[in-house]
Design a protein that fits this description.
Blueprint (H helix, E strand, L loop, with lengths): L9 E6 L11 E16 L7 H11 L2 E11 L5 H19 L6 E8 L7 H12 L6 H7 L8 E9 L2 E10 L12 E6 L5 H13 L5 E2 L9 E6 L13 H23 L7 E9 L2 H12 L2 H8 L5 H9 L11 E4 L2 E5 L2 E2 L2 H10 L4 E7 L5 E8 L3 H8 L4
Parallel strand pairs: 3-4, 7-9, 8-15, 10-14
Antiparallel strand pairs: 1-2, 2-3, 2-9, 5-6, 6-7, 10-15, 11-12, 11-14, 12-13
Helix pairs in contact: 1-2, 2-3, 5-6, 7-9
């Protein structure tokens, strides 16, 4: 992890507790020096992991001071025993930090259906608390990884009239990536003082256009969680809804989360391409979003990207079955700036050959112009190839 803008009043730690057989880092702690305001967004899966059952009502109360995360075991589909481990780990941490238990959120990621032992928490928590430091965010980013090829972090420093504040986002995710949520864990910290209602609105807006606008494999997990904590340590004026400062905060949060979301797509299991599906000329933003999602989640489209095949027929077909009303005779499709279909018809083999060269790039944009209005929306996806099958076929071995 490079140098990032770190919010004041937050400390971090991470250790290897033994949950992962590999001996890699697998437990992390984020702690605010004072109770922070918090907003959260969680999985829409009806099968919900034990940590989320604990954390959701606590986050809904609006205050959080510490987040305990483990990787290597999802503590999902583990029944009463798994729920008890989540509760007990929270109790033990509260005692170690001398704070109220309801100020602690817990999160897990890893294999589903494996009982979580309490012993790693009993042994690791004292050391985890002892190691807390304001410069150890990189360790947290590493400790929350599962099949990730690299850790993910993004930040922003925001200058304002009465000083400055920082935003820092940490995330994990590579497989089981699909809204809602996009199968991942995300933790965003700021030392700004943000009004509670703005905190929630800002997070939901940013998540919609980032973590809920990416797909790798169409699977939504049981453990997805994004938390936004604001502890007000920068001592600036409170940021209120409807103000210029609020819009400034939202824009920077949007960017941090979109940066993290793109990292997740780029790190998609076995991925060799990162592709923005941009739908323009739609009748409404929602229709543009529906069409973009349909293309981005198409296995046929994604395998064509892997094969570096400018098969625009698969793309227009995905638009057609998206459910929105389109006129196939008005649709244009481009790979970067290379127009391969005009008014629903091929522009010829020469331009398609140029488009094939575009598909050899690691990142490119597919633009679909519906010519039905002025609305635009984007979705971010990866290709789908042999390595994805290998990784997930061997995941538990």
């Amino acid at each position: 992890m490079s140098v990032y803008d770190l919010p004041t009043g937050f400390r971090f730690s991470g250790i290897a507790s033994g949950i992962k057989k590999s001996g890699k880092l697998d437990m992390a702690l984020i702690c605010s020096d004072q109770p922070a305001r918090v907003a959260g967004v969680f999985t829409k899966n009806k099968v919900i992991a034990a940590p989320l059952q604990i954390s959701q009502p606590r986050v809904a109360a609006g205050r959080c001071q510490a987040v305990l995360i483990n990787s290597g075991n999802a503590n999902a589909c583990t029944g009463d025993a798994g729920l008890e481990v989540a509760v007990q780990s929270s109790k033990m941490l509260a005692q170690q930090l001398s704070i109220a238990e309801d100020l602690i959120a817990v999160a897990s990621t890893g294999v589903i259906g494996v009982q979580m032992p309490i012993e790693p928490f009993e042994q690791a928590l004292p050391r985890l608390v002892e190691l807390l430091a304001d410069d150890q965010a990189a360790v947290v980013a590493e400790a929350i990884m599962t099949t990730d090829a690299y850790s993910k972090a993004a930040s922003a420093r925001v200058e304002c009239q009465d000083g400055a504040y920082n935003l820092l986002g940490l995330a994990k995710g590579a497989g089981m990536i699909h809204p809602n949520m996009a199968t991942m864990l995300g933790f965003v910290m700021t030392d700004a003082a943000v009004a509670p209602e703005l905190l929630d609105l800002a997070l939901r807006r940013a998540v919609k256009n980032s973590f809920n606008s990416i797909t790798v494999d169409g699977d939504t997990s049981t453990n997805d969680m994004v938390l936004l904590l604001a502890n007000g340590s920068c001592e600036g004026a409170e940021i209120l809804p409807g103000t210029e400062a609020a819009e400034q905060f939202c824009q920077h949060l949007d960017r941090v989360l979109l940066d993290l979301a793109k990292m997740i797509v780029r790190d998609g299991e076995g991925a060799t391409k990162t592709v923005e599906i941009q739908v323009t000329g739609a009748a409404s933003e929602e229709e543009a979003r529906v069409a973009a999602k349909s293309v981005a989640t198409s296995s046929l489209v994604k395998t064509a990207f892997f094969g570096e095949d400018a098969n625009w027929g698969r793309i227009i077909a995905a638009v057609g079955y998206s459910g929105i009303d389109v006129d196939q005779n008005r649709i244009d499709i481009s790979f970067n700036q290379i127009l391969v279909a005009k008014n629903g018809l091929s522009t010829g083999p020469e331009l398609e050959a140029e488009a094939t060269e575009v598909l050899k790039l690691a990142e490119f944009v597919v633009t679909i112009d519906l010519h039905q209005g002025d609305a635009t929306s984007s979705y971010y996806t990866s290709d789908l190839g042999y390595e994805y099958i290998k990784i997930n076929a061997d995941y538990r071995t």
